[in-house]
Amino acid sequence: QQQVKQSPQSLIVQKGGIPIINCAYENTAFDYFPWYQQFPGKGPALLIAIRPDVSEKKEGRFTISFNKSAKQFSLHIMDSQPGDSATYFCAASMRISGSRLTFGEGTQLTVNP
Amino acid sequence: EAGVTQFPSHSVIEKGQTVTLRCDPISGHDNLYWYRRVMGKEIKFLLHFVKESKQDESGMPNNRFLAERTGGTYSTLKVQPAELEDSGVYFCASSQTGFVYGYTFGSGTRLTVV
Predict the structure, then answer these.
(1) CB-based contact, B39 to chain A, within 8 Å
(2) Does A96 score more than 70 pLDDT?
(3) Beta-strand relationship, B43-50 and A45-50
(4) Confidence of residue B100 (pLDDT cuts 50, 70, 90)
(5) Is some CB atom of chain B closer than 8 A to the CB atom of A40?
(6) Domain count along chain A
(7) Considering only alpha carbons, which residue of chain B is nearest residue A105?
(8) Does A42 sit within 8 Å of B107, measured CB to CB?
(9) A27 part of a folded domain
(10) What is the C-alpha to C-alpha distance for residues B77 and A94, in angstroms, rounded to an integer?
(11) B89-94 average pLDDT score
(12) Residue A31, domain CATH
């Protein structure tokens, strides 16, 4: 049973486009929702994270939108660049579990020049 | 500050053999985690150490997997005997003392069982 579902599996956009990656979760006890960025041959790196008490968080060109009632959250990348080409993972965690992360399946993003 | 280091970066072994993966966390990080990504699927939690103690090992797939953390420093994950379905990328991550949400991943060990 997969508790965090991520879509799409892959995404191709042109430079300057706004890729959007969506995630949905089932467990209402989750209270922390991070996004990780992974380049080939590297480990996932924390990109941005949100708590359920806010509906949006922005850091530079990256924005998380959070819909608590729908149990969905998404990552938007403004003015995307070829250097943003990577695999993106959404995840969820609950404090009671000691920060163990439940990941989505990942989205392979390609930004063409 | 050195990051989380994993050895080896790649390992190819035959079914039935034994493999040991090593993780050196960031110095001073009490929390150490093992995760695994199989066949392009989601990254799955395996277990969590706090210092040398296993805090949560509910994600370990079966008793062919054995994790240890010597003196609360580096950790090893042994697979014995390895099966084809054990192939994947094994990630280690560490974080500071206390409950923190964000932690640092290593680059992973790609294990291929043939």
Answers:
(1) no
(2) no
(3) unpaired
(4) low
(5) no
(6) 1
(7) B42
(8) yes
(9) yes
(10) 25
(11) 96
(12) 2.60.40.10
